[in-house]
Amino acid sequence: MKKVYMDHAATTPVREEVLEVMLPYFDGTFGNASSVHTFGQEARRAVDAARETVATCIGADPTEIYFTSGGTEANNMAIKGVARAYEKKGKYIISSKIEHPAVLNCYQELEHRGFSASYLPVDEAGLVDPASLQEAITTDTTLVSVMLANNETGTVQPVAELASVARKNGTVFHTDAVQALGKIPVDVNELDVDLLTISAHKIYGPKGVGALFIRKGARVAPLLHGGHHERNRRAGTENAPGIIGLAKSVDLACRELPIEPARLAALRDRLEQGIMERIDLVQTNGSVTDRLPNLLNIRFEFVEGEPLLIGLDMQGVAVSTGSACTSGSLQPSHVLRAMGVPPAKAQQSVRFSLGRTNTEPDVDYVLEVLPRLVERLRRISPFYAEVSGSEGKAR
Q1: What is the CATH number for 352?
Q2: Catalytic site residues?
C-alpha cells in the first residue's frame, strides 16, 4: 500500500543534512557550551555560529536570538516574560481568537493572575482586521500577540499592519511564526515585530528546540531561573546538537524559499482543484488568497472529519483534523468557530499539509482514494440520505 504523509503542519521528518551536522555534537564535540575548557569552547563556537545563521535568515542581530526547547516555550517566554516585565505600566494584553493553544493558554494563565485580556475577532476568511486592534488597544496595553500564519487554515495575517498599530501606541508586539518560517519570507524588520517565535520540527529539524527573537530594547522577564545561560534570559545548559540542527534547518529553508513554496503551492492547488472536481459539497476553510502555500483545510458536508481521517490512514494517507496539540479533543476547532463556521460543520473539516517529500503522484493517489471514502461515509449518513433522496443528487 502506498504511504503518503500530508501532515507536515504537525511535524516533519528530520532532513539528512540536518542529522549529519548534529551527530558530532552528541559524542565527539559533546562539551558544555558554558564551560571554559577546549571541549566547551568548541561547542560554544558552534552554538554562536548557529545563532548567527538563524539571525541572518530572519533579518535579526545574533544578540537578539535566544534558543529554547521549542515553540511552546518560546511563546511562554515571550508572553509571560513581557507581561511581567511591563506589569507596572499596565495589565491589559491583547491576542486573537485563532491563536495556537501555546498562546491562548498563556493568556488564560495570565488572566488567572489578575491580567485583563481581549481576543480580537476574525472574518470568515480567518483574518484579523487592524482596525479592530486600534479599537481595542489602550494606553495600559502592554502586549499584543497575533500569529503570522494559522496552523489550521494557513491564513496569513497582516502582521506588519497590526504591529504598526501596536508601535504607534507604545505596545510590545509578538508573533508566532512557527508555521510561517520556510513557507513565506519572514523578516523581523519588515514585519516590525518586537518578538518572534520559531520551531525546528516544522522545518525538517529536530523536535525539542526552537528560538525566540527579542528585539533590542524589549524587556522580557525570565521564565526559567538557574544559571546565566542565553545572556540571563533562559537558564539551562544549551542543547548544542538541537541548536545546530535548528540552524541547519533554518538555513536550508531560507535558501529554498525561491523554489520550494512555489512547488508546494502547485501541489496544493492540484489537490484542491481535484477535490472540487471529484467531490460535491465541499468548502475550503480560510483565505484562498492570503494563505500558506502548503496548507489546505477543507470541509466535506455530511462527513465527520475523524472517521475520514481514520479511513485515509487505512489507505496509507496521513492528514489531520486540525492542530496536533488539540488531537483527541471532542470539541470543534476554535479557529473555525471563530471564523463563523457552525460547530457541526467545523467537525467536518480535514487539514492537508504538504511538504518537501510530497509529489504529484502522492496528490493523485489521494484524489483516487478520497472520493470513494467520502462517498462511502456519506452513504451511512442519515442527513445525506435525506438530501440526496429529495434532490436526486446533493449539490
Answers
A1: 3.90.1150.10
A2: 325
